[in-house]
Amino acid sequence: MEVPSVAVRERCERLVAAGWSAAEMPFGFCHGDYRVGNMRIDGPRITLFDFDDCGCGLQWFDLATIGWWLEIDGRCDAAFLWRAFVSAYMPALHGSLAFCHAISLLILLNEINSIRFLLDYCALDDDRWRDVCKRLDDMSYRAVSGQLAINRWPA
């Protein structure tokens, strides 16, 4: 297995050092596995299910999970979908600099959590691990440089 570059660690450290603080984020009930696969969408109504990972935690992490899915899906309309989601879900966050900065780090943490899952439960060949490490390297670069797809939404 290829080890992610030292640059990934440095990028994570740079995101944290830029002033993001967990104390600034709302803490409370979280779904814990907030993604499209755990939603039933019926017209304008969305029902969440699969609450086996729920509990108290950083609520923005739930939002970041949707941002992470948009990032890895590679949709050209990711920024539009992200803006619509945030505006509908928590309108007060729209344009918040603290939220925009924290969400980049939290999206990167989602990527790291996905790798932890792969390490714990999956046997991947060397080529697949190289792909996983490349994606982490790429996502960490985009998170630090403000180039995540969700960062393209207007304030």
Written account of the structure:
- There is one protein chain.
- The chain is mainly α.
- The protein has one domain: Aminoglycoside 3'-phosphotransferase, Chain: A, domain 2 (Alpha-Beta Complex).
- Helix content is 54%, strand content 10%.
- It has 5 helices and 4 strands; from the N terminus they run αββββαααα.
- Strands 1-4 form a two-stranded antiparallel sheet. A two-stranded antiparallel sheet has the order 2-3.
- β2 (39-42) and β3 (45-48) form a beta hairpin.
- It starts with 5 loop residues before the first helix and ends in an 11-residue tail after the last helix.
- It comes from Cupriavidus necator (strain ATCC 17699 / DSM 428 / KCTC 22496 / NCIMB 10442 / H16 / Stanier 337).
- Residues 10-81 form the Aminoglycoside phosphotransferase domain.
Keywords:
155 residues, mainly alpha, two-stranded antiparallel sheet, two-stranded antiparallel ribbon, globular, Kinase-like_dom_sf, Aminoglycoside_PTrfase, Aminoglycoside phosphotransferase domain-containing protein
Please give the CATH class. Answer: Alpha Beta
How much beta, percentage-wise?
5-15%
Helical fraction equals 40-55%
**Which spans have pLDDT < 50 for at least 5 consecutive residues?**
none
Radius of gyration: 16 Å
* Assembly classification: single chain
- How many helices? The count is 5
List the helices and strands and how they pair.
Layout: H1 6-17, E1 27-30, E2 39-42, E3 45-48, E4 55-58, H2 59-73, H3 78-89, H4 97-121, H5 126-144
Antiparallel strand pairs: 1-4, 2-3
Helix pairs in contact: 1-5, 2-3, 2-4, 4-5
